[in-house]
Every structure is written in structure tokens, then in C-alpha cells.
């Protein structure tokens, strides 16, 4: 069977280099299909009232990703060898990272499920592998603070308007952080990844997202050479947990622009690092 599709699938197992599968003579990647979003409601039915009532926020459930392939061996012996290589490739005890040449800057972290092959001809088989995407999202191949360091990290479709200048590294007390994701970045409610690193000198530093009306206060002093890190909802001074010295505030990012101010800090140097999330 002649394969005209020249898409490439990139597979990276944990701790191993990324490999590419394209449309060659023996083993052809045909297509990668991402599952649709799965909104999940939490409802209850009150007695004596029509309908149901939604409780809390709507969340998104895990989705699936399907990759389609074709084996075109020269004979039965080569077919048997290729099947063994394929079973080894798609067997993993740990998470796998997938991306395709259609959207090379978007990745999905997933787990392969059992699959079977269908014979097409004497030495030709087709098969599809379904992967469980537990997060329910695709995400940028690198975090926000690395997105513009290499052209391969960026592509059309990341929701980054061309009329804006983007930075996730700031050296002022007033700046804007742009979240191009399809959802808000919520470390507290949804356990999303968001790491904020802060250096500078001062006392009683207050970081405020005026867009979401959220604040984080570090009640002690910061000196030169120290780094305050807010990792999700957990603050650290250098490598030591320092939640007791904060107001236990949390910072999230709404979709689009987020305006920040910083008080109580001189010579600020602040980095926001988070993956962009997409359906």
C-alpha cells in the first residue's frame, strides 16, 4: 500500500531520547487524533424542584489520543520482527510524551493502552494505539520562560497575538504576564504548574495580581543572593520551606493579560514559569 501522508510522530519515553516515526517503507505513521474536551459536572437533584443544580466549578476529565499506523513488511519474517519492535516501543511503565509534525510545539503526556493489529495483506498490517491523557490537556513543549529561546518551541495556534511583546522575566515593580492557555492557570484549585522566582532586596514584599485580585506577602526581609520561590502554592526561601513567614496567599493567572505590581522590593528580578495548556 502506498502511503502519501508524510506526517511524523515524535515519541519520548521517560529518561530516553525522543525518536521520530514517519512514513517510511516498513513502518508508517498515519495520523494523530486528539480527543475532545470532557467537561465534568458535579450536580445534585434537590427534592421538590425541577432539574439539577451544579455544585462548584466544572472540571475537565481525562481524554484519549489515538495514533494510527501501517506496517508494510517485505515478508512474514520481517513482519514478525517489526511487530516485536512495535510492542517494545509502545510498552512503558512510565508516562510517554507525544507530539506530531502537524503541531510540533504542542505535546501530550500519556500512557499507551493495549492494542491489536489487523492484517491487510500477506505482510501488511494496520493498527491504532490509544493513549490515556490523564490531564485532559495538551501543553506547550516548554514552559513560558523558554518559549521564545528556540524557534521550534513556537507555532501558530498558541493564542499569542502578534501585536504584543511577550516576556516572562521582569525587572520592574509593575508588569504584565500573558496567559495564552485555553484555561486559567490555577495552582490551588486545579494543581496546575506555576513557578514564580523572585530575587531583590527589601522587607514585607507583596506580589499582587490586580487582574485576579490575589496577593502573596512574604513578611520577612529578602537580601541579595536569596531567592524566593513560589512553587504552585508552596513558598521556599532558597531550598527551605517558608510558608510560616507568608500570608499563605496564592497566585493564579486568568486567561489573557494579568497585571502585577510588587511592593516592598528593590531591584526586583522575577520569572514566571508555567506550561501553556490547551484542549
Report on this structure.
The protein has about 280 residues and is mainly beta. The chain is built from 1 helix and 23 strands. The protein has 2 domains: about 10-135, Elongation Factor Tu (Ef-tu), domain 3 (Beta Barrel); about 145-279, Jelly Rolls (Sandwich), CATH 2.60.120. The strands form 4 sheets. Strands 1, 2, 3, 8, 9, 10, 11, 12, 13 and 23 form a 10-stranded antiparallel sheet that branches. Strands 14, 15, 16, 17, 18, 19, 20, 21 and 22 form a 9-stranded antiparallel sheet that branches. The protein has a two-stranded antiparallel ribbon with strand order 4-7. It starts with 8 loop residues before the first strand and ends with a strand.
Search tags:
Siphovirus-type tail component RIFT-related domain-containing protein, 279 residues, mainly beta, 23 strands, globular, Jelly Rolls, Elongation Factor Tu (Ef-tu), domain 3, 1 helix, single chain
Task: Give the secondary structure arrangement, pairings included.
Blueprint: E1 9-13, E2 19-21, E3 27-34, E4 39-40, E5 43-44, E6 53-54, E7 59-60, E8 63-72, H1 76-89, E9 96-100, E10 103-112, E11 117-121, E12 124-133, E13 138-140, E14 169-170, E15 174-179, E16 195-209, E17 214-222, E18 228-231, E19 234-237, E20 240-241, E21 256-263, E22 266-273, E23 277-278
Helix/strand/pairing category:
mainly beta
As a percent range, the share of strand residues is over 45%
Q: Helical stretch count?
A: 1
CATH topology of the largest domain: Jelly Rolls
Summarize the amount of helix as a percent range: under 10%
CATH A-level architecture of the largest domain: Sandwich
Number of strands: 23
Largest sheet: 10 strands, antiparallel
- How many angstroms separate the termini? 34 Å
Using the coordinates above, name the CATH class of the largest domain.
Mainly Beta
Number of domains: 2
* Stretches with pLDDT under 50, minimum 5 residues: none
Identify the overall geometry: globular
Radius of gyration: 24 Å
Protein name: Siphovirus-type tail component RIFT-related domain-containing protein
Pfam families: Sipho_tail
Domain Siphovirus-type tail component RIFT-related: 31-132
